[in-house]
Design a protein that fits this description.
Two copies of one chain form a homodimer. Chain A starts with 5 loop residues before the first helix and ends in a 9-residue tail after the last strand. In chain A, strand 6, helix 10 and strand 7 form a beta-alpha-beta unit. In chain A, the strands form two sheets. A six-stranded parallel β-sheet of chain A has the order 2-1-3-4-5-11, covered by helices on one side. The first copy, chain A, folds into three domains: 71 residues, Orthogonal Bundle (434 Repressor (Amino-terminal Domain)); 122 residues, 3-Layer(aba) Sandwich (Rossmann fold), CATH 3.40.50; 129 residues, Response regulator (Rossmann fold), CATH 3.40.50.2300. The longest helix of chain A has 17 residues. By secondary structure, chain A is of the alpha/beta class. At the A-B interface, helix 5, helix 6, strand 2, helix 11 and helix 12 of A face helix 5, helix 6, strand 2, helix 11 and helix 12 of B. Chain A binds a DNA duplex through helix 3 and helix 5. Chains A, B: This is LacI family transcriptional regulator. Chains A, B: Keywords: DNA-binding, Transcription, Transcription regulation. Chains A, B: InterPro entries: HTH_LacI (IPR000843), LacI/GalR-like_sensor (IPR046335), Lambda_DNA-bd_dom_sf (IPR010982), Peripla_BP_I (IPR028082). Chains A, B: GO terms for molecular function: DNA-binding transcription factor activity; transcription cis-regulatory region binding.
Chain lengths: 359, 359
DNA sequence: CTCGAAATTGTTAACGTAAACATCCGTGGA
DNA sequence: TCCACGGATGTTTACGTTAACAATTTCGAG
């Protein structure tokens, strides 16, 4: 019963598309299944079946519904879907900033893999890494349309705020030692640092100086720890640590201090940017790299191979970290809870032109 | 009427928190307003009023509701809210990747400003910049829980896909010449390039060589155009363009070719990374910077001041671009539609040590 | 002490979707 | 010929929230 296709369809469609009764033609309300159903002359349940590709709809009906959808420009309402299904198909990513290469590459990988699994990602930036801010982010997150969260944050801060982590929210943490409480994915910082230091020792250097990252960073802490361990195990003297803040500029200042020390022939910088600063400091101090001083970085950022000289560094597989985060989190969401523990992504030393035997 | 506080509350709360009837204690269902209402002995509307801080709730009731909320760990369901209100408080950001410094810094600024306005941001990465992928992103976006979209994409591709841009979706575009169809926010590429080239000419160089970005990029196109214009207006010879792909490596190869040309005394690279490659090529070819050759970059990335030598470059205010994107989009969402047009963010030349008068 | 206005709280309905169940139709076997 | 069955489609309901309206309580003025 009822009218089929023909003129009626188009007119009705135009009425709906124009936004019924709204002057100016601006649509006030989106097209819903009911609208499509009315136009196609079926029930909204049938529209639902077509939209979800379910069986049990005869071809002719299906065709009609599809036409009506196209006619009206129907797009499903994800809020209603989320409400119905009780999930959002969205992953939240909490971080301090995208400024560091590592973070942005990890996030990119997360976004890509999440998309492949049908999940969108929502960025939750935390301004200053104060505890209040972290707490705020967690509170907001609780209300956020998110099925799980990936925390890319130095977890010192998380420690205090942890109590407020809403129960029932799935979490994966990157770059932290919270492995006893949450599933953690991280680069094998210690092994990377070990490779870097051994490489320099193997070249014949008596010992290796170290430009460390900020004290609050677990990654920095672990790289420094491994550096110290290798030296101690090899019975080498352990020079005092120069501390930077990941920036090239801080590396430069540390480098100036190191350049003043004639006994310094090998430097392990905790990241590539600080290594860049060290290179500049050595150059300005008239010390040749690698002839007089060798330098190793960490991260293998894209530019490292173009430094002067091209930088020997430890390659970090950020993409893999992102991939594992997503899969660990999705396992947690879909299946049984993942036990806490740390999933380590291996690193590789990339020898380039900034290292050589001591003079 | 009915029971108040006391033992009953806690027991009921525990039952709910534990996830009624689910063995193993894992809650299957989140706490809803109805649960809180039941525990507090009020209607769910009252809970709603308390949750939204509305007036007209007597202090004692309010207290009771808040207690119940805390007891149960209630958190509002944003899907239901979105459905009710017809908006998501979320902005989508479509981009090819976070790899480039510019993109990640713009996204960071977008995220920050969006958060300040109560909006979350959803990342929609597009793998390869093929038209199919862009189309796919747009389709997904249509179904996405998003009130508006910021497109950080070379819009050559958008051109073909534009027809499918769902009507009624608010858009702001970054870095494109789509200003006649959408509101666009962009760095003043042309002026930045002009400043760079003029700086070199003012130093006394006869002409300026150019390492351009990829042909598909509007930003690259505009920088190249301005470079050419300034030279022509000044009656200088216009050397052939060396084309790179934004990477330091491509800059290196371009630099090797330039280094072979003894008449080349000034180079304007379309971004800092390619400038880095040029510096390396010149160094390896034995040509001094800036004594023999001057180099200018574009972007002013964090590391540029630590290059050898520290790079003279054009500072781009990515944070401001992000800020304007968000506000333009929110204006569009909240108020009347914004007319198409381009909003230009000014640039500044930062003179450092890589430029000097010709030998 | 009574009445009515104001303040507080409760009830109903709707947002768009989809599972669960109900209904209708035609077909084939007894 | 009739009935049972299965496939196609329709109807009802619930997800969690809140606007709009209804009901109830409180309090002050006369």
């Amino acid at each position: 019963m009822g009218h089929r296709h023909g003129q009626g369809v188009t007119i009705e469609a135009q009425r709906l598309r124009a936004g019924s009764d709204v002057p100016g033609g601006r649509r006030k309300q989106r097209v819903s299944m009911a609208d499509v159903a009315r136009l196609a002359g079926v029930s909204s349940q049938t529209v639902s079946r077509v939209a979800n590709g379910q069986a049990g709809v005869v071809e002719s009906t299906r065709e009609q519904v599809l036409t009506a959808m196209r006619e009206l420009g129907y797009r499903p309402n994800s809020a209603a879907r989320s409400l119905r299904y009780g999930r959002f198909n969205t992953i939240g990513v909490i971080l301090f900033g995208l400024a560091s290469t590592g973070n942005s590459r990890t996030v990119e990988a997360i976004a890509t893999h999440a998309a492949a699994e049908g999940y969108a990602i929502t960025l939750i930036p935390v301004g200053m890494p104060t505890q209040d801010n972290v707490l705020g982010a967690f509170t907001r997150m609780g209300e956020l349309a998110v099925d799980g969260v990936i925390l890319i944050i130095e977890v010192h801060l998380l420690d205090a705020a942890a109590v407020t982590l809403p129960p029932g929210v799935h979490v994966v943490v990157v770059d932290s030692d919270a492995g006893d409480r949450y599933p953690v994915v991280d680069t094998d910082q210690a092994d990377g640092a070990r490779q870097a230091v051994r490489h320099l020792l193997d070249l014949g250097h008596r010992t290796v100086h170290h430009v460390a990252g900020p004290a609050e960073s677990y990654a920095a802490e672990r790289r420094t720890g491994a550096w110290r361990t290798v030296l101690e195990e090899s019975g080498r003297p352990v020079p005092p640590v120069e501390r930077g803040d990941w920036s090239a500029d801080s590396g430069y200042h540390a480098g100036l201090r190191l350049a003043a020390d004639p006994s310094c022939t090998a430097v392990f910088a905790a990241n590539d940017q600080m290594a860049l600063g060290v290179l500049r400091a050595l150059h300005e101090s008239g010390r040749q790299v690698p002839a007089e001083v060798s330098v190793v970085g960490f991260d293998d950022i894209a530019d490292a191979s173009s430094y002067l000289p091209p930088l020997t560094t430890v390659h970090q597989d950020f993409a893999e970290v992102g991939r594992r985060c997503v899969h660990l989190l999705l396992d947690q969401i879909h299946q049984e809870p993942t036990p806490p523990g740390t999933d380590l992504v291996p690193t590789t030393l990339i020898p380039r032109a900034s290292t050589a035997p001591p003079p």
